[in-house]
Structure formats: structure tokens, C-alpha cells
Amino acid sequence: MGMARQAFTTLDNRGDPTFNQLLGINNRGQIAGYFGSGAQGHPNKGYLLTLSHGQSMFQNENFTGSVQTQVTGLNDRGVTVGFYSTMNTASMTNNNFGFYTWRGRFHRVNFPTPHNASPPVNQLLGVNDFGIAVGFYTNPQATNFGYLYNTHSHRFRRVVVPRSMRRPRKAPSLTATAINNRGDVAGFYDGRHGVTDAFLK
Q1: Which long-range contacts (CB under 8 A, 24 or more apart) does 108-115 make?
Q2: In the predicted model, is pLDDT for residue 42 greater than 90?
Q3: pLDDT at 200 > cutoff 90
Q4: Measuring CA to CA, which residue among 86, 55, 200, 186 is closest to residue 126?
Q5: Pairing between strand 132-138 and 97-102?
Q6: What is the pLDDT of residues 50-63, one digit of tens each?
Q7: Rounded to an integer, what distance in angstroms lies between the CA atom of residue 143 and that of residue 83?
Q8: What Cα–Cα distance (Å) separates residue 200 from each residue in 68, 78, 160, 179, 189?
Q9: For 178-190, how does the pLDDT look when each residue is reduced to its tens digit (9 = 90+)?
Q10: CA distance 167 to 165
Q11: What backbone torsions phi and psi does residue 104 show, to the nearest 5 degrees?
Q12: Looking at residue 14, what is its pLDDT?
């Protein structure tokens, strides 16, 4: 079998041609991303990129009142997800709050727990066509806890390594990064002996 010919194209937003990341793509030719490194004075700024008839069209998408925004995922029904910050410090230790957008409106999402890092860290990283988003929050011990969030019912569900379900406080640090329309979740977690393991749930 012959391999299909492929072409790579650089697609940088002119807002900062030195730092761009594209993090999600849907079947409608839209891509989620952001520019800006996040260093002090170079905040993240989110956008949607649409490719059509050889043209690249950028649409800014930044959480209202935020200092920084990353758009990290999107589905085929117009929902985007990501996270934002009200800070842009020299140490880059900034608060993070998850969000999703629907019909042009931003909705803040943060896992309901009293055990947040300081400053708090919540991020949504992917979403499927049924409006189920995946992400994580971080506790004061710098352990990540993965979760699912239903944008319709506004309910959360934990994503954990099976062997840790009986002792959730001892669960390894886990980040849920992607979900498909079958409900399969992908991501990574801290395995034994300092190894980072990928997972599919």
C-alpha cells in the first residue's frame, strides 16, 4: 500500500508569531489554540482557527475579564473548552479555572472540592459531541485528579486508576486529556517508580 501524500503547514496567529499551540481539531475544519508563552508580559490568548478555501481565519476567544486564556478542545457542535487565569506572574504560578463555551457564552467550570491548590488549578482539555468534557484539578500536594463534566446536567464524575478507587486520597496524579463520542477517555498518570503511564479508559 502506498502512503498518502501529506503536507505540513505553519499556522501562526500574528498576535505573537513566536509562540503558538494548536491543541484540538474537529470535523468542520476548526482548530482550537492560543498564542503567547504565558511568561510575564506575554500572556496566553485563545483563538479558534478556521481553514476554508486555502484561507486561515482566526477568531479570538478569551474568557471575559481574564488575563490569560487557552482554548484546548472543541467538538463538532460548537462547544469549546479550555481554561483561563486572572494572573500573569513572573513565576508563572497562576490560578487556572476551567470553562466551556456554548453559543458564544462562557461558562466557568471548577471541580467542587475544598482541597484545591493555592492558587487553584482547574483545566478542561477535551470535549465530545455529547457535551461531556474532560479535565483535572490539582490539590495542595500538587496531585492532579481527573474528571468528567457534563455541560448539560452540570454534573462531575471522577476519572481514576481502577486500583485506587477504594482509596481515592492515595490515587496517583492523573490528567484526563481527551474523550470521544463512545465515552472512551485518554490521558496520563503517575505510574510506579517515577514512570508516567498513558491510559485509555
Answers
A1: 108/63, 109/133, 109/135, 109/149, 110/137, 111/137, 111/145, 111/147, 111/149, 111/156, 112/156, 113/137, 113/139, 113/145, 115/139, 115/140
A2: yes
A3: yes
A4: 186
A5: unpaired
A6: 988 778 999 999 99
A7: 18
A8: 30, 25, 11, 10, 11
A9: 999 999 999 999 9
A10: 6
A11: 80, 0
A12: 92
Give me the half-sphere count of Cα atoms (radius 13 Å) on the Cβ side of residue 123.
23
Amino acid at 43: P
pLDDT digits (tens, 9 = 90+) for 74-94: 999 999 999 999 999 999 999
Cell of 183: 465515552
Nearest-CA neighbor of 175 among 117, 123, 127, 101? 123
Residue type, 104: G
Query: Beta 132-138 vs 68-74: how paired, if at all?
Result: unpaired
108, 99 contact by CB (below 8 A): yes
Distances, alpha carbon 54 to alpha carbons 43, 67, 76, 141, in Å: 29, 32, 21, 47
Maximum Cα interatomic distance, the chain, rounded to a whole number of Å: 55
Contact between 66 and 36 (Cβ < 8 Å): no
- Closest residue by Cα to residue 74 from 55, 59, 53: 59
Which residue's C-alpha cell is 491510559?
199
* Residue-level length of the chain: 201
